[in-house]
Structure formats: structure tokens, C-alpha cells
Amino acid sequence: MPDTALPPGEGQVSLALLTEISASFNSRDVDRIAAHFTEDAVFFMASGPEPVGRTIRGRAAIRKVLADRFKIIPDMHWGIEHEYVCGDRAVSVWRVTGRGSDGTVLDCRGCDLYEFRGGLICRKDTFWKMVRPDPVGRSALLP
């Protein structure tokens, strides 16, 4: 853990804590990542069957989803562009890249909206933009 980072769960939300969270995601060490979440954390993934994407509840479930994701995209990497802290909330703007095990290239810009409790993430809401060709006949209002 970098000297500038706070150990998970200690102190106030800070840029140093966000740096450590980002470093843990880039390490793809799911135990290190999970240590930053409360036991009852909620993670709203960027896509899925719900209006909020896909809701993952609880540290153990978040750990499993990330472990599964890293099997599919083993070199996933988040390049941080900007991070902001406001009390017990934070925003991280990033560009995520990687190559899927099927050869699919991942290159998206996105952000995470965080809420913290006791220095741990209790809510993570992820948004990202994807480049897609505009199929003929598709409504401009649809993603």
C-alpha cells in the first residue's frame, strides 16, 4: 500500500484513499478491492437488466463479480483522469482499457460515484460511455 494512502476503513475520505482504491482495482486483487467495501455495500454496475444497471449487494457478492470479470478481462486497467471528494462522497473519472479473453477490446471513459461510511465504500454507482456504430433505423434516443 502506498505511504500516502489510508488503510481501508480508517480516517476520512480523501484523495489518498481514492488513490488506494484505484490502485487496488488496477491490481485486480479482489481481496484488496473488497477490503474497501462495507459488508452491506451496494454496487450498481454500468450495465445490466435494471434501470440502475445490475445491482450487486454485499462485500462477498461484489468480490465474486469482480473475480469473474477479471477472468474475462484479465488486463483491465483504469487510468484516472480526475477525482473529487465532498465529505463522505467522491467521484472518480477514468478511462478503462483491456482485452477480453475472446479478443474484444475494451476502451471506455466512465466515472464512479462513491458514498462512504467509516472510510469504506457503502455505495458505488458506475457509469461509462462506449463507442458503438449507429445501426440503421435505430432511434437517436436509445443508447
Record keyword descriptors for this entry.
143 residues, alpha+beta, Nuclear Transport Factor 2, Chain: A, six-stranded mixed β-sheet, globular
The N- and C-terminal alpha carbons lie at a distance of 39 Å
Strand content: 35-45%
Structural class based on helices, strands and sheet pairing: alpha+beta
Could you say what the CATH topology is called? Nuclear Transport Factor 2, Chain: A
Query: What helical percentage do the residues reach?
Result: 10-25%
Oligomer: single chain
Weakly predicted, low-confidence segments: 1-6
CA-atom Rg in angstroms = 16 Å
The CATH class label is Alpha Beta
Average pLDDT taken over every residue: 88
The string of secondary-structure elements, in order, is: HHEEHEEEE
Number of strands: 6
User: What count of domains describes the coordinates?
Assistant: 1
| Basic shape | globular
The CATH architecture category equals Roll
Spatial order of the strands forming the largest sheet:
2-1-6-5-4-3
Largest sheet: 6 strands, mixed
Count helical runs: 3
Give a verbal description of the structure.
By secondary structure, the chain is of the alpha+beta class. It has a single domain (15-129), classed as Nuclear Transport Factor 2, Chain: A, CATH 3.10.450. The chain is built from 3 helices and 6 strands. The chain has helices spanning 15-27, 30-34, 59-72; strands at residues 37-50, 53-57, 77-86, 89-99, 105-117, 120-129. A 6-stranded mixed sheet has the order 2-1-6-5-4-3. Strand 3 and strand 4 form a beta hairpin. The model is unreliable at 1-6 (pLDDT under 50).
